[in-house]
Specification:
This protein has about 425 residues and is an all-alpha fold. About 70% of the residues lie in helices and about 0% in strands.
Length: about 425
Amino acid sequence: MPRSNLALSNLRGLVIVIVLAFHSVLAYLSFLPAAEFPFDTPPYRWLSFPIVDSHRWFGFDLFCAFQDLYLMSLMFFLSGLFIWPSLQRKGSWTFLYDRFLRLGLPFASVVLFLMPITYYPTYRITAADPSVAAFLHHWFALPFWPSGPPWFLWQLLVLDIVAAGLHWLAPNWGLLLGRLASSAGAHPMRYFTGLVVASAVAYVPMAVAFTPWEWSEFGPFAFQLSRPLHYAVYFFAGVGIGMFGLGDGLLASDGMLARWWPAWLTTMLVAFILWAAPTARVMADGDAAPLWLQVAANLGFVLSCASGCFFLTAVVLRFGNMRLRLFDSLSNNSYGIFLVHYVFIVWLQYALLEVELFAIAKAILVFAGTLLLSWTLTIAMRGVLLGTRVVGSEQHASALEERDNPPGSLVAGR
């Protein structure tokens, strides 16, 4: 396997580790209120924070804030890399059929069967009647069906449908994206600037109109109002980068992006400050925050997002382009881990509520337990026909060129 593809395979494994770490610490953020969020009362903040522990650590706030800036955008970007070769190989209709099986079926299965199990502890914490029957009564009374982190799958499926539709109507539409990305390897800063500008156009007006944090739910379909167009920019940026292969362009293991990783680290840190300073003021002022301050915070998000994506990708390309058996397994099973991990996260956080441990110790136990249980369950699922249909076979997952699967996810807080 080429070194760039190997690095991306390892990046896939690293992304799922970050996703699990992000969700593992959500119960221990210092800014959370002292009391748990009520299950039946809008705006249903328990969707973002199913468990609220009394043990907190401010370092987790900084960690989650940083991951929220770039992680989901990176996942959409990685998911777009193999879209064009797959469309060219399969055609629009076969591609869509495969994507519905690969994304739609798991989304429906996890949301329908796993999410009620996942959120049952959330209900029990504040319930007068903690029985399963009472929980189901309250669950079906909700004005939506909570989807948890798999919201990523349906939004990715929508983007796949758009890509397939464009391919059917205009088979050469991807060539334009390819031309825009053709010089990215030699001039990564120029490409970075273009990405920042495009995402700013897509994100800033939406964030001003709806705030950067507002979510909406319709049935099982949840989305962050400010970000769908922003995610589309990163998805189609990935399509363009992946058009002509990965070995010689922006994602070359010995290319300019990888060699400049210290510069991307510096850019990322500066951008984080440019986001954090105005965002703190906006959150403190609320609706009274002036428009210029909101725009500054939103531009800081756009810059932080792009620089975070570039830095993590550059580091893995530079130092992670070797074969590691553990990461091979982690990467090959990352989709299944993503699908099932949230149920373990919430139940482990719930089990540790009354345990007198530091927040860091609790988070480590939740993370390690979730990784081990999710990984083991995914491997076990590959041994049965239905499980293979949902998470894919080992042979399918091991061929990076055939990977039409998302790299695994979390949503910022969801």
